[in-house]
């Protein structure tokens, strides 16, 4: 079971406060944390379809359960004392996505000013990028590969905007599904590629750089389930899903 916590320290490293967001099942993990000029905190987190987390670290409760289809993304704002101000949940289309058929992962998060921020990452399946008013669904262009996204969250309701970027599909792997070992072919990439193995909760399990155009990864120590191989090189990015039996 994974849960989310936040700690605040003063300039001397002394603990000011500790906030714990209690979960159940295969809950979730904190992803990125940013602040604005007033000291407010903005947290992005992932909650799994099997998980439930109380995202209010105070005395009240704000319980969120992962919706069907894949890991859900949570964005929440806390004040300078770690008290909840607002929260948003981003998930897939349950009518389209089957179990673990979508992924939504934040890789970078920048606060422009209070209540206005830009996020980037990658996603698969069909995702609603507007959790407040109506629906704003985007669908990745490939079943096995994932698209990058840039999401701007506005100050007022209905001002979110999303840009979807096509990933260059320059990697192949086999066998897939696999019992352990997979061979990765980096087609079109130059030297010094970064490769990451990410589980279905958005946790990076392996990260390494390589100058080779072909390499073998050992997934035998990991549990059965869905994993993602992400490759980055010179501004290009590809994400491929792999099933571990």
Instruction: Outline the low-pLDDT stretches.
Output: 97-101
Tell me about the largest β-sheet. 4 strands, antiparallel
Helix percent reads: under 10%
Query: What is the 3D form?
Result: globular
The radius of gyration over CA amounts to 18 Å
Order of helices and strands: EEEEEEEEEEEEEEEEEEEEEE
Strand content: over 45%
Mean pLDDT: 77
Count of individual helical segments: 0
Q: How many extended strands?
A: 22
State the secondary-structure class: mainly beta
Widest β-sheet, arrangement of strands: 4-5-8-9
The overall number of domains is 2
What separation lies between the terminal Cα atoms? 21 Å
Please, could you describe this protein's structure?
With about 240 residues, the protein is mainly beta. It folds into 2 domains: about 5-165, no CATH class; about 170-245, Immunoglobulin-like. It is built from no helices and 22 strands. It has a 4-stranded antiparallel β-sheet, with no helix packed on it. It has a 4-stranded antiparallel β-sheet with strand order 10-11-14-15, with no helix packed on it. A 4-stranded antiparallel β-sheet has the order 19-18-21-22, with no helix packed on it. A hairpin with a 2-residue loop joins β21 (about 225-235) and β22 (about 235-245).
């Amino acid at each position: 079971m994974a849960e989310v916590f936040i700690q605040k320290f003063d300039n001397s490293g002394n603990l000011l406060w500790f906030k714990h967001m209690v979960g159940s099942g295969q809950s979730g993990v904190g992803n990125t944390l940013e602040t604005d000029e007033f000291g407010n905190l903005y947290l992005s987190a992932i909650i799994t379809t099997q998980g439930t987390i109380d995202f209010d670290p105070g005395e009240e409760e704000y319980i969120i359960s992962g919706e069907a289809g894949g890991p859900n993304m949570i964005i929440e704002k806390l004040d300078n004392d770690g008290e909840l101000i607002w929260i948003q949940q981003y998930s897939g289309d349950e009518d389209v996505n089957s179990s673990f058929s979508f992924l939504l992962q934040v890789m970078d998060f920048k606060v422009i000013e209070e209540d206005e921020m830009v996020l980037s990452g990658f996603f698969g399946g069909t995702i609603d990028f507007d959790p407040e008013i109506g629906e704003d669904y985007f669908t990745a262009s490939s079943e096995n590969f994932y698209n990058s996204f840039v999401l701007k969250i506005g100050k007022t309701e209905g001002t979110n905007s999303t840009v979807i970027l096509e990933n260059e599909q320059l990697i192949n792997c086999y066998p897939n599904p696999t019992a352990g070992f997979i061979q990765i072919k980096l087609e079109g990439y130059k030297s010094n590629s970064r490769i990451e193995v990410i589980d279905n909760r958005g946790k990076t399990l392996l990260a390494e750089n390589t100058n080779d155009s072909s390499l073998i990864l050992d997934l035998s120590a990991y549990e059965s389930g869905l994993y993602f191989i992400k490759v980055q090189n010179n501004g290009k990015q590809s994400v491929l899903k792999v099933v571990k039996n």
